[in-house]
Write a structure and sequence with these properties.
about 30% helix; 5-stranded antiparallel sheet
């Protein structure tokens, strides 16, 4: 008697291509998000002593395909912080400057975005789908889960 296979053929439809962001719209989106960073996030988080070892030095935007990321760069505060970090995180590699992404907007269609935040597990978690840019920026402004 022949062995039965563990595998089975199934239909796998092709993935839909994500829309490209027109250059004019990309500039308008960048300008609005940069305004949010300059007026709300930067005064609250730049050069504040919120973390024991690191200090956030800059907040900026990065585009990758149809995603716009809100990012920050942080550095170790001083040599004492380096020694304390090495003592606490013995197995981890300690770098002087770290660049992290904390919020992601995915361009879905004209004035429609998916909003996600970066979880402690290292995965992106989408919380809002197909919302306008104004609604996304208001959500980022109001909820600290989207902050660095």
């Amino acid at each position: 008697m022949p062995k039965s296979s563990k595998y089975q053929w199934v239909y796998s439809p092709s993935k839909q291509n994500k829309p490209k962001v027109p250059e004019a719209e990309k500039q308008a989106i960048t300008q609005q998000v940069q305004t949010l960073i300059d007026t709300d996030l930067a005064p609250r988080y730049l050069h504040q002593d919120q973390h024991a070892y690191f200090q956030i030095e800059s907040l900026f935007i990065k585009w990758h395909r149809s995603f716009i990321y809100l990012c920050y760069t942080c550095r170790l505060k001083n040599s004492e912080a380096v020694e304390a970090a090495i003592a606490e995180f013995k197995d981890s590699v300690i770098r002087e400057a770290i660049e992290e992404r904390f919020t992601r907007l995915e361009y879905v269609a004209p004035d429609q975005f998916n909003l996600a935040y970066f979880r402690h597990t290292g995965k992106w978690w989408t919380t809002h789908e197909n919302i306008t840019l104004d609604a996304a920026l208001t959500t980022i402004r109001e909820y600290e889960i989207y902050h660095p």
